[in-house]
Amino acid sequence: MEILKCEEVVKAVGGTLISGEVNTVFYNISTDSRNIKQGDLFIPLIGERFDGHNYIASALEHGALGSLTQKETEPFPGKVLIKVSDTLKALRDLAVYYRQKFKIPFVGITGSVGKTSTKEMVAAVLSKGFKVLKNQGNFNNEIGVPLTIFNLDKSHEAAVVEMGMSGFGEISRLTSIVKPDIAIITNIGVSHIEKLGSKNNILKAKMEIFEGLNEKGLAILNGDDKLLYGLNNLLKFRTVFYGMEEGLDLRAYNVESLGEKGSTFDIEIRGKEYRVRIPVPGIHNVYNALAGIAVGIELGIPPEKIVEGIEEFSPGKMRLDIINYNGLKIINDAYNASPQSMEAAIDVLKDISGEGRTFAVLGDMLELGEFSKSAHMEVGKYAASKGIDYIVAVGEYRSNIVRGAVEAGAKEEKVFEFKDNMDAAKFLKEFVKSGDVLLVKGSRGMKMEEIVNILTG
């Protein structure tokens, strides 16, 4: 982060300086009193189960030079205190101010699934020509995005920012911070449909990203997604549609799976054909690669370097992470889950299994509301239709997965259900044998990695 002066902060957040020196200089922004460093500005946030205001004194004692506050707070000798009406809004406002200091290309990414992999793919491509800032981990919400922005410094030449949401207005607030020059929407699925009610509403919420898009900017959209392709000729921005269907602006063809080694496809860039290799399994990653290629073309990365960037892509932790342990092959995809990503992961399981027995260990998909039972049944049906040998369902909706699998032809003696991860792991540890291939996947709240950890000791 570049330094911020106290007077800048006061002006940016519309606050009132109630103690301390106006010429104080801050070197970093922190919302976590446990990780305070010398020279920080502490921003105490209020959540359902915590109130950062309780830790203002501790933050100041451990090196913070100042703090924001939305509550009446006793002055702290020699430290800055700035009164604001809402500390979360102040965090956003300060990020808006700080982002405007950087005249570099910003890429904003949203969508129902594939956001993080697309972010990593775009960053891999842009790293061939720029020093790139990107969100770390799941820093894609109303706290994580501002903190990502504060990581910018003068050395950065481009930024790639993933934006998550669960309801209306969230993307709007995030895009107002990021002000992207390029906006990507990966797809429109049923993630968060519990709050939004329909896929059309999800589309509407994702389209909020355009509110912050530079008027001369570029929208990059998945043209194989019917709802997104429905925006063709309706947006006021330049638009690139990517996918595998005929007639799109950027199209992958001759797509070939290499199993565990990834996949390849051909693409035409500026009249010349290139063969692209993705080093991780799953045909769905072709879409993430196409988004990365589109950004690379827009920002002038030479095609040969774009292809190099895709080949150097690495997925995030617990995202189709293949672990070989004592003869078992485990696909740890426990980071999150939706109906679309479940089907994609099951495809990967089938694709890399070889001669081994296949196990789909599937946990609950959360935030699906009234669609929960039917969505879990469909996942069970899909696993059975792909010929998965054993289906192990875990969680509240386990019986719906099992029912769907049996209805699709799975034999009852090959379908198992467990209330929690511990019971499932105990069963699997006794049942699996060398040569077996397991997919472990569920929503983040299910913590399915617990099963992986037990199986791998």
Provide a descriptive summary of the structure in words.
With 457 residues, the protein is of the alpha/beta class. Helices cover 33% and strands 22% of the residues. It contains 16 helices and 23 strands. The chain has helices at 6-13, 56-61, 87-99, 115-126, 144-149, 170-178, 193-196, 199-206, 226-229, 285-298, 303-311, 339-352, 372-385, 398-407, 421-431, 449-455; strands at residues 4-5, 16-19, 25-26, 28-30, 40-42, 66-69, 80-83, 106-110, 132-134, 158-162, 182-185, 218-222, 238-243, 250-251, 253-257, 263-269, 272-278, 321-325, 328-333, 358-363, 390-394, 415-418, 437-441. The two termini are 40 Å apart. The mean pLDDT is 95. Residues 318-444 form the Mur ligase C-terminal domain. InterPro entries: Mur-like_cat_sf (IPR036565), Mur_ligase_C (IPR004101), Mur_ligase_C_dom_sf (IPR036615), Mur_ligase_cen (IPR013221), Mur_ligase_N (IPR000713), MurCDEF_CellWall_CoF430Synth (IPR051046), MurE/MurF_N (IPR035911), UDP-N-AcMur_synth (IPR005863).
Give the N-terminus to C-terminus distance in angstroms: 40 Å
The strand line-up of the biggest sheet is 9-10-8-11-12-13-14
According to CATH, the fold-level topology of the largest domain is: UDP-N-acetylmuramoyl-L-alanine:D-glutamate ligase
The SS-based structural class is: alpha/beta
**Uncertain stretches of 5 or more adjacent residues:** none
CATH architecture field of the largest domain: 3-Layer(aba) Sandwich
- Kindly provide the radius of gyration, computed on alpha-carbon positions and rounded to a whole number of angstroms: 24 Å
Average predicted local confidence, pLDDT:
95
Helix content: 25-40%
Q: CATH H-level name of the largest domain... which superfamily?
A: Mur-like, catalytic domain
Estimated share of beta-strand residues? 15-25%
Count the helices. How many?
Answer: 16
Biggest sheet statistics: 7 strands, parallel
| Total domain modules | 3
Which assembly state applies to the chains in this document? single chain
Q: Say how many strands there are.
A: 23
What is the global morphology? globular
What's the level 1 CATH class of the largest domain?
A: Alpha Beta
Subcellular location: Cytoplasm
Enzyme class: ligase
EC number: 6.3.2.10
Pfam families: Mur_ligase (PF01225), Mur_ligase_C (PF02875), Mur_ligase_M (PF08245)
